[in-house]
Amino acid sequence: MPREAGPFPFWFKLDRTHGKPMTDTTATLDGAAPPIPAATELAARNRLVITLLLVSTFVVILNETIMSVALPRLTIDLGISPSAAQWLTTAFLLTMATVIPVTGFLLQRLNTRPVFILAMSLFSAGTLISAAAPGFEVLLVGRIVQASGTAVMMPLLMTTVMTLVPPESRGRTMGFISIVISVAPAIGPTVSGLILAVLPWRWMFILVLPIAIAALVLGGTRIPNVTTPRKAPLDVLSVILSALGFGGIVFGLSSLGEAATHEPVIPAWVALVVGAAALVVFIGRQLALQRKDRALLDLRTFASKNFSISVAMMAVSMMALFGALILLPFYLQGVTGLTTLQTGLFLLPGGLVMGLCSPFVGALYDRHGPTPLVVPGAIAVSASLWILATIGPDTSIFVLLPAHLILMAGLALTFTPLFSAGLGSLPMQLYSHGSAVVGTTQQVAGAAGTALFIALMTNRSTTLAAGGPVDATALAGGIQTAFVWGAAISLVAIAAAFFVRKPPAQAGAMPTGH
Q1: Which residue of 8, 136, 215, 477 is 20 to 30 Å from 56, comparing CA positions?
Q2: pTM, whole model, 2 decimals?
């Protein structure tokens, strides 16, 4: 029997035969199917795949929020308004929300390795474009290309883990996925703050580029294929409808903020109506196509009450996360006068708290289920937002820092159980669609939350400025208004938290078939 290849990080327990018999085969790029001779080699392969996917996904998702601390600086360097600058984050999230539904098709149609190569190639190309961007427009294009690659990586990681890891060990593994999906965005502002303290903004991309290329080369040569592709048609009309639906809603919310300073290209109400109408048609088309097993996003995932509640809570949690990450830098730099470096360091403890908590939360989930975790987590998130809703021009950072720490700890308690309970409630044949639904919901909620909070801040700040320049007092008032709305929305998550249940062990082990 061959020995296991090299020592790989082994933070989770993998079922050596989960998903495939010991003598099963795995397809390769050229269609060959080399046999997997023993359970030991299969376990080593699984560890390698998940480790490489975790590391690569951490790198790409870090870029979701790496711009947040830089936005105040970019408004000066590029000569743009805060509403325009926030599109560097919103467009990233919106592109992900548009592309992620298509990944359900890609994951069924292609093997693991080519999907990984596609994702990391797009991300590397977008990073190169952003690093060389001469101005705002090209930088925005680079961010969109980056997001296209990031959008593919997230469902690829989730689907692979759900396929390879048995139900009794998923909580622990999902804890590390939570580090990737939630901690990476949380420490993004710290990374950018450290870079901006000594280097121009484009170095945020120059320093990431060699890491992205190294991940591409390593993963492209080392990741084996662990799934079996099947023919899956792509409904082009569904892709167009999803782009119009999600894009229209987020664009409309962003236009609300632009209207406070200038007339937007498209009135906000027009974008919102078009987005809502397209979304309704998109849902109707998916319901019709899923009967023929041709849906771009299979909505049978929502037949599970547990999945539906988990997804709703994820949406509220992502709005809270991205809302705080976008508003706090504006407050810290525009009101308290902190530098980008100081702002990044201020946000670092919260990211560390989330990172340290996530693996333990996963182990607790495996032992006790989601309810003892998500209920106090939702309460903590809401409490922190209500604290932030009381800020004013003279609020001390010693009030802001504990509020931020409570927020991050609360999110750590909610993300891992929601991922595990939600996706674990689905049959195996719906894992790819469930992962796509979760990813789409997260990014739409993050983009909508970012756009909504910026719009509320801009409108209120402009009103308080009474036609004059927005000073620290007016800006603080606008940020406070945005946090009040965020705190009110968070109450929904508390009510929903009591209904999240741990799925039965067999829920994720149903045989495939359509």
Answers
A1: 136
A2: 0.73
